[in-house]
Amino acid sequence: MKNAHLRLGSLEFRKWSEKSSLRIKVKMDRFIGEHPKVKAEVGRAHLVSVFGNDQDVSAVSGAFALEECFTVQGPEMPAVTVTLGKDPQTFRGSIANPSWRRPVRHLVAISSELAQTHLSDDSEYRRSIVCDSDPVMILHRVATRFGLPVAPDWTSWFVAELNRRQKIRGLLGIGCSPVVVYGTKEMFMNWIASALKKKQISIPDETNSTHWTLPDPFGRRPLLPSTKSSLK
Predict the structure, then answer these.
(1) Do 107 and 12 fall into the same domain?
(2) Model confidence over 137-147: pLDDT tens digits?
(3) Nearest-angstrom CA–CA distance, 103 and 93
(4) Which residues in 121-146 are b (16+ Cβ under 10 Å) and which e?
């Protein structure tokens, strides 16, 4: 935890009217988002985790619900204006300490796309947001979402295939190294069938249950080499 404050980002929300102005800035420990596709547009946020006093966190929560834009930045991420979009999900809690006069309020918000990513194959986005760029996490997350019959030994093959076909891209992240994987269940099943026929991968002989050794989903890891350029 030493110098943890140096790894924090910030979220700033501003709103003006004819009679008043509002400026709120809170600390942010986790963020997943992406730059806008067109320069004049606003970027998209997919996960935001902030904390502050009761009044500030309540105001930020209200801004999320109203689809307002806000600015985020971090130690290794320049300021970017983003929005959570329509129907974000929010979760609120408190962090207490006996030495504090008041508890710190904690707010986590996720976009409707990220929420849908965790549900099923029934998605309008045709892509999956993964919170960690570790190859094992990527295969496990995609396999879990789509119900793919995979083995941990296929990790290197799967990530190499994503890179070769340009189906993976790095996202903006604070406190994590997120990526987005493009594709549907049908597409990935076709990859697996073709790779098995070509003997690029093989079905394990063991009949025991599959064991995955997964990394911390919010560990600080560098992006995959092939995804670095997408963050420039």
Answers:
(1) yes
(2) 999 999 988 98
(3) 10
(4) eebeeeebbbbbbbbbbbbbbbbebb
